[in-house]
Design a protein that fits this description.
By secondary structure, this protein is an alpha/beta fold. It contains 8 helices and 14 strands. The strands form 3 sheets. Strands 7-6-5-8-11-13-12-14 form an 8-stranded mixed β-sheet, with helices on both faces. It is globular and about 50 Å long.
């Protein structure tokens, strides 16, 4: 990222927090060569990373009124949901105060009564329970070492399920090395009846899981994906075509 201008350079006890900008894109980085978040400054609501685009697939299966995002980063998921889903209530949980401050300062986060930003450990936050159950829970928990391994634990998946409505969905972003983690799949299937996943082709294995089985056929899902694609500014149909039951 040597061609980027360094806008912000700080650190906390968990590592560096750097923000780069080339006039068109802005990037949040936690380590050398790492892109934690990326926005296009002219259209911050259009998701740039493949895995974040894939994490929007639950919108084909539910119309969320209440969402919780675990792991704010630069707030790209929050931005996309706020833009795409009218009147949505979003709670975002971020472990690091400095990351949240940077997101608010540099990443054009939307604000308002329907958006709540919480500084907390997401694992503990789920264990304590949300004030209200959500239609969609998204987990994107990464740090300077990579993926937070706590998200693979049975207790975390169980706590996530407890905080999701009976017709709600979970979107779980993992590294691709979890693709053949049958223990994780079995844990998820204990709490969710409709479990699907896809390889983004960029190192991520995204799992989406619904409490209830969705019986929409391929034609219906493709039509819904095309409609959403127009609003979201990227081809959701691309990720739908890679999605399969596991």
């Amino acid at each position: 990222m040597s061609h980027q201008n360094l806008l912000h350079d700080s650190a906390d006890e968990l590592g560096p927090i750097r923000i780069f900008d080339d006039g068109q894109y802005r990037i949040l980085s936690f380590a050398e060569g790492d892109e934690q978040s990326r926005i296009r400054l002219s259209t911050p609501h259009i998701l740039q990373h493949e895995y974040t685009q894939a994490m929007m697939l639950p919108l084909l299966f539910c119309e969320p009124k209440r969402v919780c995002i675990l792991g704010l980063g630069g707030g790209t998921l929050l931005n996309a949901l706020h833009y795409t889903v009218p009147a949505i209530h979003i709670t975002a949980v971020e472990l690091r105060q400095e990351v949240m401050d940077a997101a608010e300062m540099y990443f054009k986060l939307p604000t308002g009564k329907r958006i709540s930003l919480e500084v907390a450990n997401a694992i503990d936050y789920m264990a304590e329970g949300l004030p209200k159950k959500v239609d969609l829970l998204m987990t994107d928990l990464y740090n300077t070492e990579g993926m937070d391994r706590s998200v693979l634990q049975a207790s975390f998946i169980e706590n996530c399920a407890k905080n999701i409505k009976e017709d709600g969905w979970l979107a779980l972003n993992c590294w691709i090395d979890q693709k053949n983690n049958h223990e994780l799949t079995d844990i998820i299937k204990q709490h969710f009846n409709d479990v699907r996943a896809l390889d983004t082709g960029s190192g991520n294995w995204v799992i989406i899981a619904g409490k209830r089985m969705n019986h929409s056929n391929a034609k219906e899902l493709k039509a819904a994906a095309q409609k959403l694609s127009d609003k979201m500014g990227f081809q959701l149909t691309k990720w739908l075509s890679r999605l399969s039951e596991i």
